[in-house]
Amino acid sequence: MTRAVRIAAGLAVVVLAAAVILLLPHWLSDAKAAEFTRAGCFFIAILGLNLLIGYTGQISLGHGALMAIGAYTTAILTADHGFRDLWTIPLAGLVAMAAGFVLGLPALRLSGLYLALATFALGVAMPALLRKFSGLTGGSEGINLFDKALTRSTGALGPAHVLGWTIATNDFLYYLTWGIGLVLAGVAWLIVRGRPGRAFRALRDSEVAAASSGVNTAFYKTLAFGISGFYAGVGGSLFVLVSNWFVSPTSFYFDKSLLLVVGTVVGGLGSLAGMAAGALFIQFMPSWAGNLSHAPGAPFVFFGAAIILIMILLPTGLGGLLRKLAEPLTSRLYTRSQ
């Protein structure tokens, strides 16, 4: 497939995705739109996690903790330091990016299961750490921006006003989340097709061969953690706004990290387009599984069975399915370009 065909197919996907995102709130109830907005937060986080796992082969089970860092950055800056909530979104990403670099330091010595366990330790410890520093984080009660920063929370007092348009709060948060998600997906696309992406794939295929080819393995390993941390921090920041401007340690138990990994794998490792499908899966499948049966533990059984079924039928994830469905279009474009 020629480069022109790949670009045309990519633009077609972007236009289609933008059209669906733009029109979807008009077809949904407010409650359902709010669920899609939360899925957008997960989409951003697993985009970054896919850059780490899918492109460098480094496994992280602690990205829920990085989301928590982004979420609490937004909450603390808005509640205690007078920032507007929207201004804190990039700052939350940068703080989580710094934490991602620190989290990536064990990757210089560890790999595989050992690295996964090291990152999992942070995910498990994060709720306890948030309770420990109660003077900063509010402890077990968390931080409620409705109580502390109502006037600085966009849309909390009513519809949001953007460029002369008046938008309902739920619609505003939906467009904000998925709009940022599309922009960051474009950034990820540029990353994986540039020099960092080539270095990431070289690390994934063979670290020894990458080092022999002149790739600075230490730099790119920590860079991958830092970039994925930025994405997780932005997702966590938006998660606060979506969750009624409230955050607490219970919002980020270790199961959040596991869900992000599930979304990444189900979406398809190494597939950016599949991450949206993975995010929708981890947002909606647990509730659908709960509706199938109310017996104790049954929802977890159905949820696990759904994951296993997808992995058996679609070993390349939902992203692989999307690529197969797009093959007729790309083949037709390629034929016309000859």
Sum this structure up briefly.
The protein has 338 residues and is mostly helical. It has a single domain, classed as ABC transporter involved in vitamin B12 uptake, BtuC.
CATH topology: ABC transporter involved in vitamin B12 uptake, BtuC
Mean pLDDT, rounded to whole units? 85
Tally of domains? 1
Please trace the helix and strand order, writing H or E for each element. HHHHHHEHEEHHHHEHHHH
Helix content: over 70%
* Largest sheet report: 2 strands, antiparallel
Binned strand content: under 5%
Specify the overall morphology.
Answer: globular
User: What's the multimeric state?
Assistant: single chain
> If helices are DSSP runs of H or I spanning 4 or more residues, what is the number of helices?
15
Ends distance: 10 Å
Classification by helices and strands? mainly alpha
Strand order of the largest sheet: 1-4
Q: Which CATH architecture is right?
A: Orthogonal Bundle
Uncertain segments are: none
By CATH reckoning, the class would read Mainly Alpha
By DSSP, the count of extended strands is: 4
Q: Mind telling me the C-alpha Rg?
A: 20 Å
Could you characterize the architecture of this molecule?
- With 338 residues, the protein is an all-alpha fold.
- It has one domain (3-337): ABC transporter involved in vitamin B12 uptake, BtuC (Orthogonal Bundle).
- Helix content is 74%, strand content 3%.
- The protein contains 15 helices and four strands.
- It has helices at 3-23, 30-56, 63-80, 88-104, 112-132, 134-137, 145-148, 169-192, 195-205, 207-212, 217-242, 254-267, 274-292, 298-313, 317-337, and strands spanning 143-144, 160-162, 165-167, 246-247.
- The strands form two sheets. A two-stranded antiparallel sheet has the order 1-4. Strands 2-3 form a two-stranded antiparallel sheet.
- A hairpin with a 2-residue loop joins β2 (160-162) and β3 (165-167).
- α2 (30-56) crosses α9 (195-205) and α3 crosses α11.
- The longest helix has 27 residues, at 30-56.
- The relative contact order is 0.18.
- The model has no long low-confidence stretch (mean pLDDT 85).
